[in-house]
């Protein structure tokens, strides 16, 4: 069996200056590493201005029939359109076979609120903002590259590959909607 040898010269000694310097240097290194790492970790948090717009509420009484209001949500325009009965009928009568990105009008609105169409107002081609009423299908037209959308925001002609996006939204009351 091996015996443990204890150095009798080190027993009961007070810490030396060298011990203090080693401890202080280690503490400074840990503090420096924390100061270096904190900005890298902190920048991963979402910016305060985007948190404020994670969801937005909108009063639908501000929009009259046949009118569109553009609001800003998450830095993007959102179209809130109060569609006329003729626009709703035109959107419903369109055969899905005529659409580039087939989607029923009923799937783009909430039941009982078919007159209100809420869309992210950026063209799905390159992100331009389409204008309402200039397209040949009664909907939106992107003047930058010629994409044409119908009264339900579905792509009908042009280079855009998809329909205008419908954001997540819910009705809080009959006249108030929460987007996001």
Question: Would you kindly provide a brief summary of this structure?
Answer:
The chain has 180 residues and is an alpha+beta fold. It has 2 domains: 15-45; 50-179, 3-layer Sandwich (Rieske Iron-sulfur Protein).
Please explain how this structure is put together.
This protein is elongated. The protein starts with 16 loop residues before the first helix and ends with a strand. Helix content is 22%, strand content 23%. It has two domains: 31 residues; 130 residues, Rieske [2Fe-2S] iron-sulphur domain (Rieske Iron-sulfur Protein), CATH 2.102.10.10. It has 180 residues and is α+β, with helices and mostly antiparallel strands. It contains three helices and ten strands. Strand 9 and strand 10 form a beta hairpin. The strands form three sheets. The protein has a four-stranded antiparallel sheet, with no helix packed on it. It has a three-stranded antiparallel sheet with strand order 1-10-9, with no helix packed on it. A three-stranded antiparallel sheet has the order 2-3-4, with no helix packed on it.
């Amino acid at each position: 069996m091996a015996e443990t040898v204890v150095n009798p010269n080190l027993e009961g000694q007070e810490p030396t200056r060298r011990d203090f310097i080693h401890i202080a240097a280690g503490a400074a290194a840990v503090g420096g590493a924390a100061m270096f790492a904190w900005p890298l970790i902190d920048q991963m948090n979402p910016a305060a201005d985007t948190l404020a717009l994670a969801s937005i509420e909108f009063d639908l009484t501000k929009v009259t029939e046949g009118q569109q209001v553009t609001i800003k949500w998450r830095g993007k325009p959102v179209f809130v359109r109060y569609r006329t009965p003729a626009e709703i009928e035109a959107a419903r009568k369109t055969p899905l076979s005529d659409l580039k990105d087939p989607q029923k009008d009923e799937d783009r609105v909430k039941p009982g609120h078919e007159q209100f169409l809420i869309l992210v107002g950026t063209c799905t081609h390159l992100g331009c903002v389409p204008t309402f009423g200039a397209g040949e299908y009664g909907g939106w037209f992107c003047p930058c590259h010629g994409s044409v959308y119908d009264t339900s925001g579905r792509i009908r002609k042009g280079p855009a590959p998809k329909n205008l996006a419908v954001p997540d939204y819910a009705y809080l009351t009959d006249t108030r909607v929460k987007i996001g």
